[in-house]
Fold NnrU domain-containing protein.
Amino acid sequence: MTTDLLLAALFLFATHAVPSWPGVRPWLIARLGRGGFVALHSLGSLLALGLFVWAYREAGGGEPLFVPAGWAAPLVVALMPLSFLLIAARVTSKAGEPDAPNPPRGVYRITRFPGSMGLLLWALLHLQATGDGRRVVLFVAMAAIALFAMAKNDWLLRRGAAGRAYRVETSALPFAAILAGRQSFRPGEIGWGRVLGALAAYAAMIAVHPWLFGVSPLYWL
């Protein structure tokens, strides 16, 4: 693990956190226009990602920080489909704006932050299944981005009456609102298309994982 990798991780986090900070996005759009803001944000995100990939590769294998438990890798394989489903459902389902959220439907009955929760689950699962320094930095950065997004969006929801009502009806923790009786589980609203799409994406990731990251998720079989 090197200083370059840590700095690249901080820069990657900043490119997600700063533009989405309340007030920053409208201020930038007012001065750059929506097209200019999108172009600047996209360029910054690509630059941050490229720098992180470069620093990650330059860091080498990374020194071991801990030895993962024997059950860690099978747990990742078993639960990653849920992460893919949460992210796929978020991408294909609109949540509305914080001051006017859409009524909870589909995956939003399970958690009000499906995309961020899917990313957080992805990071935490992989974090406990790896032990070298550079991958710990990678997954801690992913978890930090997801946690920041959830905290920021929850704060925005608290600012308006519609957002506060939406918070009462839903939960950040998956299935908590359903178990508390504030929501009902309706898998039909999620749809088989999203489930099959998430499983297909997961299968594709399993297939390319050895090529992209040098290790098969199924090495323990």
Notes: The chain has two domains: 1-60, 64-221. Residues 24-58 form the longest helix (35 residues). The chain has a mean pLDDT of 90. The first strand starts at residue 96 and ends at 97.
